[in-house]
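User: quick one - fold this with zinc ion bound?
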Amino acid sequence: MALDELYREVILDHYRNPRRKGTLDGDHIHAEGQNPSCGDEFSLDLRVEDDVISDAAIQGIGCSISQASGSMMAEALVGKSLDEAAEMTRLFKQMMGIDEGDNPVDPDRPGAVLGDLEALQGVRKFPVRVKCADLPWTTLESAVQSLEAAAG
Ligand code: ZN
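Assistant: Sure. Structure tokens for the protein plus zinc ion:
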């Protein structure tokens, strides 16, 4: 087992120094998620203006994979449109082997879109940890759904 591939330096760095840790004031959407199989918890605040994510804040406890995934996700989301965020979610889940979908991702493309998040692709080889990496993304989907529900 190549554990060093699971715990790559960029992952440990995000775990030790999570980006955008905290909460947002003012108008924002909020979602929380849990991964009981590992004990991970994650909460996400997003400010969305004109269908663009203008700010993001995260809080969580749990393993390095879940928290690093959340930190990298939060960093990557700011400045993205909701459509781009949905595309990132799709690419991430495909990279993790969660959702192959009907349209296989161009192997040259995920890296360009996902950036540092590509460091998590080694997690795919550890099926029990895939849920850890996926937790922030599931939480993101909940947040976006709450926005769509509020927009009616
Ligand atoms: Zn975990």
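One thing worth noting: The CA atoms of residues 128 and 148 lie 31 Å apart.
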